[in-house]
């Protein structure tokens, strides 16, 4: 079982020629938590998938892992992102039994993605504003999050 991380700020990044720009990866049996994360002011060039939260970390060290140990993800803010020459829409895949909760996306523009490409979202809640291309329904329902009242949200909201 993993521990966890919280109260993380990542800002002023330039990512180029990469498979993913912002990536969070976990799966059943990993346990742990990721919470209160602010990621802002990112410029990406030639990044295949600009934002990817995914399963697939099922490389357990031994046969004694606990499939009931699900990771917890809560209150992740991504703001002020521009990506050029991206080829795929964002992928947000939570873990069954443990959704990504309180995701906030603000002021995100992803150029180069085909108009027919759609965000792939599963087991996520949150909201998005000023995002192109249009995000998945799970983020357009504007689920309320206490994260909106967090001081970092207000600080990044003022920068936009």
TrEMBL record:
<dbReference type="InterPro" id="IPR000743">
    <property type="entry name" value="Glyco_hydro_28"/>
</dbReference>
<dbReference type="GO" id="GO:0005975">
    <property type="term" value="P:carbohydrate metabolic process"/>
</dbReference>
<dbReference type="InterPro" id="IPR012334">
    <property type="entry name" value="Pectin_lyas_fold"/>
</dbReference>
<keyword id="KW-0378">Hydrolase</keyword>
<keyword id="KW-0326">Glycosidase</keyword>
<keyword id="KW-0134">Cell wall</keyword>
<dbReference type="Pfam" id="PF00295">
    <property type="entry name" value="Glyco_hydro_28"/>
</dbReference>
<protein>
    <submittedName>
        <fullName>Polygalacturonase</fullName>
    </submittedName>
</protein>
<keyword id="KW-0964">Secreted</keyword>
<dbReference type="InterPro" id="IPR011050">
    <property type="entry name" value="Pectin_lyase_fold/virulence"/>
</dbReference>
<dbReference type="InterPro" id="IPR051801">
    <property type="entry name" value="GH28_Enzymes"/>
</dbReference>
<comment type="similarity">
    <text>Belongs to the glycosyl hydrolase 28 family.</text>
</comment>
<dbReference type="GO" id="GO:0004650">
    <property type="term" value="F:polygalacturonase activity"/>
</dbReference>
């Amino acid at each position: 079982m993993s521990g966890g991380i919280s109260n993380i700020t990542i800002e002023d990044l330039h990512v180029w020629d990469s498979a993913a720009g912002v990536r969070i990866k976990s799966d059943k049996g990993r346990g742990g938590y990721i919470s209160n994360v602010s990621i802002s002011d990112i410029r990406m060039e030639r990044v295949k998938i600009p934002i990817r939260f995914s399963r697939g970390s099922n490389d357990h060290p031994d046969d004694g892992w606990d499939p009931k140990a699900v990771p917890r993800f809560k209150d992740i803010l991504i703001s002020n992102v521009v990506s050029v020459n991206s080829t795929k829409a964002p992928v947000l895949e939570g873990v069954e039994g443990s959704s990504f909760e309180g995701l906030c996306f603000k002021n995100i523009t992803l150029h180069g993605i085909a108009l027919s490409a759609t965000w792939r979202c599963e087991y996520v809640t949150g909201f998005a504003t000023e995002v192109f291309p249009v995000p998945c329904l799970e983020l357009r329902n504007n689920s309320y999050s206490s994260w909106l009242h967090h001081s970092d949200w207000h600080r990044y909201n003022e920068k936009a």
